[in-house]
Every structure is written in structure tokens, then in C-alpha cells.
Amino acid sequence: MARRKKIYEGKAKILYEGPEPGTIVQYFKDDATAFNAQKKDVIEGKGVLNNRLSEFFMTGLNNIGVPTHFLRRLNMREQLCRSCEIIPLEVIVRNVAAGSLSKRLGIEEGTQLPRPIVEYCFKNDELGDPLVTEEHIAAFGWASQQDMDDIVHLALRVNDFLSGVMMAVGIKLVDFKIEIGRVYEGDFQRLVVADEISPDSCRLWDIETGKHLDKDVFRRDLGSLTDAYTEVAQRLGVLPRSTGATKPTLIN
What we know:
Blueprint: E1 6-9, E2 13-17, E3 23-28, E4 31-34, E5 39-42, H1 46-63, E6 70-73, E7 78-82, E8 85-86, E9 89-96, H2 99-105, E10 112-122, E11 131-132, H3 134-139, H4 145-167, E12 171-185, E13 188-194, E14 202-206, H5 216-219, H6 225-235
Antiparallel strand pairs: 1-2, 2-3, 3-7, 4-5, 6-7, 8-12, 9-10, 9-12, 10-11, 12-13, 12-14
């Protein structure tokens, strides 16, 4: 399909105008970044894997009644999505202590949390996406109290879905982050899960071995990021298991 005007380019994706009003095309790049883009690389095939995995998760959420911006996959690297107004927050759900939570609170990584914890970060790369509270969100008008109630409800439903899907293939969902967008239909507004859901935005550990199957492989130099993401895709049935192929093959 012919591309239209570029709307935005981020660290992992490019957004283009969609073919119809109210749509965008989301293109997945091979770029990998960590530590607020202080560490960078290009990982061949990462964009293809994340496009396909995000399609899998977003389709699953749509099917159980959790609204998302995803409409359909267009090709190996692009998907068609609803255009939405992104709330400037990263919504993080944690099931197990890891990463910044362990560092902030001195909790040993791998500690099971008594219940899922929902956190919010203000989306601003220059500030390092700082942690914020609901008081900050209300005070600065980023979201209303009703929005926040809906966001927590959406985040916990996503957590239930992803946890079950991952557990079925021997993977522990440690934590994940999502973005939420506003879609307007006349005078009516509703909130949808936006951006992507992929190993870039989740922390995934093998249940038996604790092996990392997420972007921590890149952050911590634990091996091949493509191999880790391919393993997730193969376990979920998104990609076929093969003995000789080194590059991911897309299932239509």
C-alpha cells in the first residue's frame, strides 16, 4: 500500500497516516534501545516479530471484549490501527518484583507480589519517564478520575489475559506496560489499549528455568534478542517451530 505522510517516529515504531480517515499505519522497526536510548542497536527481524506478536495479543484482547486500537495486520512490518489521542502515561502492571521496582524498594528480584501493582509513568523521554501518582495525573489534567478507574480496569483485564496466555506455554508474566488512547465517536469517548504489546513491553521469564525472554536480554547482554522473541512466538504458535531457519517466517 502507498504510504502517506509520516506522523511520528519513535524509538521502535513509525506512525503514518492511514488509508482512511481515523486510521494510522504503525510500522515496526528493528531498532532496540534501553536505558532511555543510552544503549542502542539494530536487531534484524525484531520488528517483524513484534508486529506479529502484538497482532496476536491485540486480537486476543479484542476477542474477549477489551477494546484496542488494532484493526488488522497489513504486512510483515505494518498494521492498521485506529487513530487515537494517547494519554501521556505508561501504565505498568507488576506481578513479580523486578527491574526498577526492585531497585527502588530493595525487594529481591523474583519476589512474588501479594497482588498486581499498577504504576504510572509520565511519558517524557527528556525526563526519563518519571514515576507519577494519581494525584499528579489529576492535578495536571492528564486524565479524569473516571478515566483512571477505567484505565485500572483495562490494565488488570490485560494482565489477566496475558498471564493466562503465557502460563499456558510455560512463561511467567513478570510485568508489562501499556499505553491508553482516547477514541472519539461523535460526542462519545472511550478508552482503548494502544501502542503495542510485545516482548519489548513485557518482562517474560521461563517458568521452570527463569530464562529471560524479553528486552532484558538486550539490556543485560544475556544473548540473542531475536532468539528470545522467536521462542516466545513459537511457544504461542505465532511462528512455526523449525530446526534450520534462522530468520522468522510469518504465518498468514
